[in-house]
Design goal:
By secondary structure, the protein is an all-alpha fold. α4 packs across α9, α9 runs antiparallel to α12 and α10 crosses α11. It has one domain: MetI-like (MetI-like fold). The protein contains 15 helices and no strands. The two termini are 41 Å apart.
């Protein structure tokens, strides 16, 4: 009887859903989908084949993917232990860390890259992986906040105390207890970092390296169809990562009882204790 009553209440709420919500969703969907459909109609499917065969395409995409991989690894190595330590040992410094990590948004990228080029050693200037170090700085506002949201959803103190009472050291606690519970937050940080690297143009062009965004700008005059197809290719790659995090995060949420969003783990997440 209770289930029937609950089902009736849900059905009643669904019927009473204001019409304006559906109107907003329809307008928002049309706003995003109509330009994409028009661009796809303009380029045609065959244009994607021309993009792949363009000179410099494979090298630019390979460089961007390598930079995305290196940037992601460095960001996680830097930000995960830092965020965990601040949450556990220095909670009063959390506001300071938030202020520091927001600076890359406040300071223009041109200023950052010019400062880096002035102080970087010559051996590092000649390597494209200097861009990876710069991208680590640019991605801090996004990666830190994704990890911070995941840590806020955990009872971190209880987890570490329980692991310590079972004889786990700091490294074991981080690897076997904290990281499994931060899996979705880390995936959020990864997808945001990768999206930033695949779309960054200013630092790459000032460093004189042809990443995928730089390649698109340099070749946009060759053919309008190829230029639009390249932009759609970059957009679809980003969407692929977004769908990947949604699928993986949803599977993890089913196991832990949490909620998955793009930037955080839901506050009702159930933690996984030490085994």
């Amino acid at each position: 009887m209770a289930e029937v009553t609950r089902a009736a209440a849900v059905s009643s709420r669904a019927r009473s859903l204001p019409v304006w919500r559906w109107v907003i969703l329809t307008v928002a969907g049309a706003y995003f989908l109509i330009p994409l459909a028009a661009a796809l109609h303009f380029t045609g499917i065959s244009a994607f084949g021309h993009v792949v065969n363009q000179p410099g395409f494979s090298g630019a995409v390979t460089l961007s993917l390598k930079l995305a991989l290196v940037t992601t690894v460095l960001s996680l190595i830097l930000m995960v232990p830092t965020a965990v330590y601040v949450h556990l040992r220095l909670p009063r410094a959390r506001r300071l860390l938030e202020g520091i990590t927001i600076l890359p948004i406040v300071i223009p990228p041109v200023v950052l890259i010019l400062g880096v080029l002035q102080v970087a050693p010559v051996s590092l200037k000649s390597s494209p992986y200097l861009l990876a170090l710069e991208y680590v700085i640019l991605s801090m506002p996004f990666s830190y906040r994704a990890l911070d949201a995941g840590l806020r959803a955990l009872d971190l103190k209880t987890l570490t105390e329980a692991a310590g009472s079972l004889g786990a050291g700091w490294t074991g606690t981080l690897w076997r207890v904290i990281l499994p519970n931060l899996r979705t937050a880390m995936l959020s940080a990864v997808v945001l970092t990768v999206a930033l690297v695949l779309g960054e143009y200013t630092m790459a062009t000032l460093d004189s390296y042809e990443t995928f965004p730089v390649w698109m700008v340099q070749n946009e005059q060759a053919s309008a169809q190829v230029s639009v197809a390249a932009s759609l290719f970059a957009l679809f790659v980003t969407w692929l990562f977004l769908m990947l995090i949604t699928v993986i995060g949803t599977r993890q949420a089913r196991k832990t009882g949490g909620e998955v969003t793009l930037l955080s783990v839901g506050a009702r997440q159930q933690t996984q204790g030490p085994e």
